[in-house]
């Protein structure tokens, strides 16, 4: 089963951001691009390297109108404790969503029931709240924020220019492909 075009279900979760707790709902993610970035757990080994990488690239995501939401099955209190204890996590300015009931992880099919954690999954969500791109990978392999940014940019481009597609390694400003009947067999 694919999650492409899956619409996020209604949700309300607690978040830790800028040294404060607040709620995030589905309504909060509508109207702009979003990257839901699932990771297994706070106080682990690979996760802080990924979250720090996102933190260091956060301004680039904001420049293109995309909010980052990191998500684990930890509570918002654990997010705060990790933020206070780890210099890499202290750099984070984007919302860290708490999903202790795995509502979001189950909705986006990243929940590992046997371990009670989310797998490493990233989901690019359109302003209408629909998944337009996603990837779920092994929990022992870290992801790259610059590649995620490129994928968001490509998703935004094809969203705005439905008559064109982006080739491998495409970045903004490079040539795209306008499919024609002659090219159908090459897609």
From TrEMBL:
Domain named Thioredoxin: residues: 2-157
Broad class of enzyme this protein falls into: oxidoreductase
Any GO CC annotation of this UniProt entry: cytosol
Single GO term (MF): NADH-dependent peroxiredoxin activity
CDD domains: PRX_Typ2cys
Similarity comment text for this entry: Belongs to the peroxiredoxin family. AhpC/Prx1 subfamily.
Matching PANTHER family: ALKYL HYDROPEROXIDE REDUCTASE C, THIOREDOXIN PEROXIDASE
Record-given protein name: Alkyl hydroperoxide reductase C
Higher taxonomy: Bacteria, Bacillati, Actinomycetota, Actinomycetes, Bifidobacteriales
